[in-house]
Amino acid sequence: MTAAPSQPSAIEVVGLTKRYGTGKPAVDSINLRIASGSYCCLLGPSGCGKSTTLRMIAGHESVSSGDVLLENRNITNLPAAERGTAMMFQSFALFPHLSALDNVAFSLKMKGVGKAERLAKAQDLLERVAMGQLAGRKPGELSGGQQQRVALARALITQPKALLLDEPLSALDPFLRIQMRAELRRWQKELGLTFIHVTHSQEEAMALADTMVVMNHGVIEQCGSPHTIYNKPLNEFVARFMGGHNVIETSAGKIGVRTDQTRIAHADSSETAGLPSIAAVVTDVEYQGTYVLLGLQNPGSSHAVVATAEYAVMLSEGQFSAKPFAVGDAVHLAWTPESAHALQG
Ligand code: ADP
Ligand code: MG
What we know:
Shape: elongated
CATH topology of the largest domain: Rossmann fold
Oligomer: single chain
CATH superfamily of the largest domain: P-loop containing nucleotide triphosphate hydrolases
Distance between the termini: 23 Å
Strand order of the largest sheet: 6-7-8-3-9-10
Largest sheet: 6 strands, mixed
Number of strands: 18
Structural class: alpha+beta
Bound molecules: adenosine-5'-diphosphate, magnesium ion
């Protein structure tokens, strides 16, 4: 777990815990190292402790126990403004009555920096995010993308070592959200700054992150690259939360198989003979454009609300039209040993 010397950890979290009441902690003794200059996404279902973790790193929430280190300096008990971190909020939270320039200069004004100096710094930052020409405009006169750049410049004016973003894209419509996330990723790379981005969207985290931290009930379930998390989910929770996997109970234990690697054949066909398989019935056929998604159920458990009794198979449009399946078809779900990996209990 030791970070290589060429990639010092910007943020380190050690045994970090938050208790709001007497019950189970909202964040339960988590350990995490985030490499300097990387894009980290904290991902998990609503209420799993993502925002609480981010707020403890930012200094907007007190810590019950544990430590937060920024570039090896213990910042656990420092006020937010003295930590070297900055926050960017949902829908950017710009002051509507202030120009882009005054929005960016605002925190320096609060710090008592003289007008000429703070406006010069703000102008300089707006130039860096290609907004120099529009410095005089108010947020209402800017597009969503331009507003995001102003919000970024405003967060950067304190010269943070890490930028913390709590669901910055979740209030945007889907089209804008995808545009904006590409832009966030681009600025993060250009600035070489450490970003920690909280999201409940698997897709968003996969698109953005160098490192994904999957949380559940206040603990970290898995930490790794999007590729590792998607291809080798550690346990059933991660496999199900990430989606795109079948969790299958076998005599040797529980396994995960990607839905696009799960084989399917009609029950009376011998196409999957010799492969490990289970019997299932097609319950759903969804046309998705480039692929067709089949929903399936284990015939023995059609009444039981057992999560492991439901499966999915993703077939390319070509595969499906060559060999169609219909609701009610009895099938074998099969997998190759290479496509299956064991899930921890
Ligand atoms: P997430 O951001 O992953 O949705 P949060 O970190 O906001 O989750 O919340 C984690 C848990 O802590 C939830 O159960 C939530 O209800 C609880 N919680 C969050 N903030 C407070 C608070 N100020 N007081 C009491 N409980 C809180
Ligand atoms: Mg939250």
